[in-house]
Amino acid sequence: IQKMQKEQAAWQANSELITSISHDLRTPLTALIGYLDLAKEKQYDSNEELEQYIDISLSKAMQLKKLTDELFEYFLVFEKQDIDLNMEVFDGSLIIEQILGEQIIKLRSEGYMINLKDSSGDYQLRVDVLYLKRVFDNLFSNIVKHGDKNKEVSVDVCIYKDKLKASITNYIPDSPGRVESTKIGLKTCTKIINQMGGSFTTTKDEERFTAEVILPVEQEK
Questions:
Q1: CA 51 – CA 197 distance, rounded (Å)
Q2: Quick check: 184 and 19 in contact, CB under 8 A?
Q3: E strand or H helix that includes residue 90
Q4: pLDDT, tens digit, for every residue of 86-101?
Q5: pTM assigned to the model
Q6: How many CB atoms lie within 10 A of CB 99?
Q7: Best CA proximity match to 216, nearest among 149, 126, 143, 153
Q8: Is 8 helix (H, G, I), strand (E, B) or coil?
């Protein structure tokens, strides 16, 4: 019975994923085909207008590439029960500082304002560094795609009850044309962090989106 319930839940999750992403794929694909048809049929009044068609087509093609990359990553992680993690013990404060530091530099280069608070101190962290980096790559790339550049992004790192808590909060732009997330990357983050013995949660309201990574740590003696 438990096996059947798990299979049913997996089927339902995949069904919801296909439904949610079908529209995201169809929209840029339809636009791409439309502009390429216009170019092929020479439905333009000047070379400048043709260049505009090409630019829009390239933009839509890149949007499709990002979506298919996300799908590939999702199925790469979920195709088997467990991920092959290379778990090692590291200086936690150093690893998190390096990972967050790289992401914050990238975010600032995109014009975002960052408020970083780190009260974690010294601790050890047992993780797979490459997969942990992938988690934060997902979270910060989501901010670039979906976050409000005019409002501050908060990054808060602390130790609470022998656990590392890293929270990232960004504002959501109040615009009718904003891009909605497929949540594929977030599902991947959940899978990775859970297998590392931690937890991954997200909360969202009308204004803000928060992702929280929690991992067990060993305090340095």
A1: 51
A2: no
A3: strand 88-91
A4: 899 999 989 999 999 9
A5: 0.68
A6: 18
A7: 126
A8: helix
